[in-house]
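During the reporting period the student researcher (J.K.) took over the structure-prediction task from the postdoctoral fellow and processed the backlog of single-chain submissions. One of the processed entries is reproduced below for the supervisory committee.
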Amino acid sequence: MIQHQNAAMRNFMRYVSLLGDWPLHAAVGLILLGFAWRRGSEDWTRILLAMLLAMLLAGVVGTVIKRTVPRARPSVLTDTRWGGPRFSSKYHAFPSGHVGASTAFFGVLLIARRRIGLACLPIPILIGFSRMYIGAHYLSDVTCAAVLGILCALVVMHFLFLKSAIGNRNSKLRWRRG
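J.K. obtained the following structure tokens:
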């Protein structure tokens, strides 16, 4: 893919990749959480807390997998694609942390508020494409990270909210009691 790139698109994808990292998602989530809390919106406070927790869970699980499976990035020239334990970030391609965190973050929003979540869905997709475009990940890294993000969003929503509230569009999301 690198041989078919132009400079403008490569620079754009680098910025998308930088903006898709978890610190920006966390900062936006915390700012919106502050606004929701200040305005007294319990629903949005809970949703934003769940978004941040799902992103945190995806980051922790993704990091454990990265340390366990030292897969070289596409840009690394090496004969072995899977090797022993390596501590360089060049060997931490699987799964994509950017995509996992972003998918978990917006996955909760998609579950809790479908219309807003659908409008935000292009963000993790564009982040995944940018990570492949700049040569940081393979398609399998991005795909597995998206699955991980979705699973983390589902786990957080399952444990934080009532099961019936997820399937019922008319009910308000409530904290799980007991």
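The committee noted the following: The chain is about 65% helix and 0% strand.
J.K. will present the remaining backlog at the next meeting.
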